[in-house]
Amino acid sequence: MNLDLNQLRILIALDDERNISRAAEKLYVSQSAASHNLAKLRQRFNDQLFVRTSRGMEPTPFAKNMLPVLRQGVSSIKRASEMQSSFNPLTDPHTFYIGACDYFEFVAMPVLAEKFIEQAPNIRLSIDINSENVKMEQMEGGALDFHVGVDNLPHASKNFSSQEWLRDQYVAVVATWRDIPDKLTTIQFASESQIHLPITLNGSDVIDNWLHDQKLYRNIHMVTQSYAIGGMISARTGLLFPVPIRVAQLLISMIPLKIIELPDEIPPLVLNIITHKLYDHQPSIEWLLSEINAIKKII
What we know:
The protein is an alpha/beta fold and 299 residues long. It is 43% helix and 22% strand. Helix 1 crosses helix 2, helix 1 crosses helix 3 and helix 1 packs across helix 4. The two termini are 57 Å apart.
């Protein structure tokens, strides 16, 4: 007969309470269930284990010898199980390493930083913007906790998990002094001289792919790696800068820019969070992912 931890716990409870009813109550089980477990253990060990006396249920010599070892074993199992849920963001120091596109750093990082100052003062976030080409290897090796980007996992290893984080519709920003329609047609949009921020390694994105399907191409005049720099260039030059709307709203609050609507048919930016199954159930990772998902409502 295999030993069951719940059965063994009745022996510790009986040693503490010396009464089968109180032992059952301590374990949140019925008296009949406690008695049933005790009977199975008596059969398993071929010993009465606990016997009724005038002082209550007393352990037999065999049980007395076994109880210290049993208590130590149950205590060790309890400590091991508690290790899985020991992360406390309010007190525990921890550094997270996140591979991400510029969107995540520009839109999400300021919100997370403000939130963590009070709620997680010992948490540090390190963003690797240029991790896309090696993100799988880095996540599998533990160098990155997860990656936030436009990639999904159609061809990736089954060891990785992917979840959609958010979608953001494209608009454009341009200098406030530009005389330009509030909404551009497809032809008008393709004809505009533009600033481009690559969000993938090959430099293209959903806008380029959408235009390519229509046998059109953008007139990209400048390429930047920063939304803030792209916004400043647009404000000075009048070049059109297509960006997701959350980015646009931040830019116009900082720089003299205005928002221009783009053709409705342009697909949205879709960002996914990719994790490795070896690490993604760690309490610290689960906590940070829940925080990142929670800020979608306020960014």
